[in-house]
Amino acid sequence: MLKTKLIALCAMFTLIPFAPAGAKDKPKPPSKPAPKPAPKQEAKIEGVITAVSTSPATITVSDSAGRTVTLNVASGTDIEGGNAASLVVGARVEAKYDLTSLTATKIELEGRDDDDDDEAEIKGTVTAVSSSPSMVSITSGGRTVTLNLSAATRFERGTAANLVVGSVVEAEYHPTTLNALKIKFEDGPRQQVAEVKGTVTAVSGAQVTIANGDRSVTLNVTPATQFENGAAANLVVGAAVEARFDAATLNALRIQFKTQASAVGQILSADAATGQFVVRMTAPGGATTDLTLTTSAATRVKVGGAELSAADLPLLVGAVARVEYNTVTRAVQSVTVEAVATLVAEGQVTAVETVGRTLTVQTAGGPVTVVVPAGAEIRLREARASLDKVVVGDFVRVLYVPGAARNLALRIDVATPKPQSFMGSVVAVDAAAGTLTVLDRRGQVIVTVDAKTDLRINGKRATLAQLASTLTTSRSVKISGKYVARGTQNLATELRVTAQSNNRGRGRGGDD
């Protein structure tokens, strides 16, 4: 037995080859591949979305058995029958999701015909519309239903903008969530569209009153009202607008803002320093609205055909005027007082006050004192003049607006007295004072020379300073002319000087 085992052992050693020294090890067999991850465990739920979150993007779905699952909506989530915007509260969905991560792999939005028991209908008239939150109330036979509007709400024969009070619609909605699924506009009574152009006289809540003359209309501003050149926030008293509206419901369809407007009212106040100008407008019913505007030196003022200045506006307080202004800047372009009664005062000036700007005229019926605005037109010697050029003793014709507190002069025409002639020699010239002393057969007369005096030396136009120089270089200077007596002054209208020089016997004249 022992011999047999030895023989077998020797045989084994004989069969095993011995590797020579330095030989490489035999390579190991390849390792087994890693086990595959366990497949995802997928679940499914069918029900109604009861909550939606955008950060993170999740939806909560509740089924008929009361089970509620909140799922993650990823970029790879397959949404059938809509998109991410269609995932709103009340939408019926069938969702497949990973049980571990609760990430939705597929969400299928179910059609309205899948379950008629989950929908209700109402056909009636829109009685209220809200934009925040977005809701609409529909009334039919004394029953009113208020529905939620969302991106998933479908519209037929119109859009959400057409949802206005008075619209006739048929709505399908979820009876539990009251989410509107579909709204179809019906062919109700034909809409009667009217227009009004005018000025906003009142704004109260969602209503605006627009007046034009004796006509005044109060309109409803709804979410469907369209605006041009502005927005609802620009609906303020004084804004000039043109509105189209439904004559039956008085719902404003479109309101267009105008940059230029006019208003007629009584001038309440005018501050020449600050430019603040307040006009009171009166509506046909007697309600009043005060419009505050701003005037400037560029504001044109016209009273009874006469042009005044913006500085004269305080004198017009109490008058009824038409005001043209910019509705954006509230700047007044013009103020026109048209319906004014005017009177005429003719006589001799007995007092002139340039600081207080008053003028007193003695007429056949007695004295008349007028306030002379800075813009009043004063005509003297066929040219415009300032109040300080009118002197006591002048005969004037004054066109004025009578008032209980003051009379407002619009135009003053100063009569030019009959000119007087003279001929003689020059005694003295005062170029600084603008006077010239002449000696004629009646004695000495001092005349005043101004820019309107036609002065010529030897036929050439000249100045008073040139005449003074001619006196020193000429051996003979003769003068003739005309003047008008006004107050204490003799205003020279025409002067003709003939001068003979000391050297050649020729005069020295002025330039052409």
Keywords:
seven-stranded mixed β-sheet; mainly beta; disordered N terminus; 39 strands; single chain
Plain-language structure description:
The strands form 6 sheets. A 7-stranded mixed beta sheet has the order 21-20-19-24-25-22-23, with no helix packed on it. It is elongated, with a radius of gyration of 50 Å. A hairpin with a 5-residue loop joins strand 17 and strand 18. The longest helix is centred in the N-terminal third of the chain and has 14 residues. The protein is mainly beta. Helix content is 5%, strand content 52%. The protein is built from 2 helices and 39 strands.
Main sheet specs: 7 strands, mixed
Distance between the termini: 166 Å
What is the count of helical runs? 2
The strand line-up of the biggest sheet is 21-20-19-24-25-22-23
Low-confidence regions = 1-24, 112-116, 505-512
Structural class: mainly beta
Beta-strand portion reads over 45%
Instruction: Tell me the overall shape.
Output: elongated
Give the oligomeric state of the chains in this entry, treating copies of one chain as homo and distinct chains as hetero: single chain
Radius of gyration: 50 Å
What is the total tally of β strands?
39
Q: Helical content, roughly? A: under 10%
